[in-house]
Amino acid sequence: MNLDQFKKKKLPDTPGVYFFLGKRKKILYIGKATSLKDRVRSYFASDLIEGRGQRIVSMVDEAKYLEWRETDSVLEALILEANLIKTHKPHYNVLEKDGKSFNYVVITKEDFPRVLLVRGKDLPVLWPTKMRLKVFGPFPHGLQLQEALKLIRRIFPYRDSSCTPADVQIADGKTPKPCFNAQIGLCPGVCSGLITTTEYRNIIRHLILFFSGKKKALLLTLEREMKRFAKEERFEEAAERRRQIFALTHINDVALIKEEYRAPQGSTPFRVEAYDVAHLMGGAMVGVMTVVENGVKLPAEYRKFNIKTVKGSNDPAALSEVLSRRLGHDEWQMPKLIVVDGSTAQLNAAEKVLESAGVRIPLVGVVKDEKHRPKQIKGDRMLITTREKDILLANAEAHRYAIAFHRQKKRKEMF
Fold first, then answer.
1. N or C: less crowded end of the chain, CB within 10 Å?
2. pTM for the full predicted model
3. Mean pLDDT of all residues in 25-45
């Protein structure tokens, strides 16, 4: 598919899910958007390979058709995307993924089910099939899913892993006490005996309808319950259903609207990612990624990596592992520049990873003196001249973040 074909499409400036389709309308890729118009347009940008990598470029070249489905909110688009990926398993969504990097929402099989966010790699180990009531996902966007759960929990309070049911506390000889979430209205009182199993399972049924993408059926269910409670003069419960209906029809999901999901007006932010490795003679080895955009640190997008494949003091190999794992996250916005801590060995290692992944992103290396102070920056002179402050800021953050993470890991190993 090319830009001229895209321009003939009249995509709306609304949230929704889009589909790239190949021959015989086979679904190649599914994505979600805050603005369908802006998001899909980004796939026809001149710098697509730098921003999204060769895999996505190949997908767009293979695509013959484009379809979309509008939603009332970004939250609903997030849930619809996950359900559709699970159903269709599009080739370019799952390519280079083994499911371990995705996120899932698990509803446990208990008297008072918990609602948990679980990484794909932990799902079969921590929550085998017999322990699950329902599983929703895969969700490609971990940070957005965390924000989504916060929104949903304000509408339908539920129990999480920090809440111990009242009967369990009593059996242990303790006086039931409300958990912190119960005190702020995010848990319905499972921990203090304020809700029965029947009432709580009704909340779980509401959640299952919502995560299944059945909002209309959920609204009808809530309306019927509201009318029944009002008829029975159970006015507090009727008022709660009215509140939930209003919240579902006026979803305030501003927190889900991220810069990477809506093309910014004017110039695109210059994103710099810096990487560093920390260890003590090869022990407690970790790696980190930090992000700076236009001179501004973005701590919410920093990432930590426990090194799994490297033994001994081998910084270039550890850096290769970190970069390889980072490139497996297509949901993360791609940088305009990558900064590594080190000289030729680290630059060569990073270059090989990018080359094998088919990604063309400029690289620079920050060389340090014996006191770990920057003494030279190796790489593209033009970028170094124009982005020196961003490079040094991102590098300093990576060093600080890596040392802190290494010390944290070392303490855990000691105790």
1. C
2. 0.64
3. 90
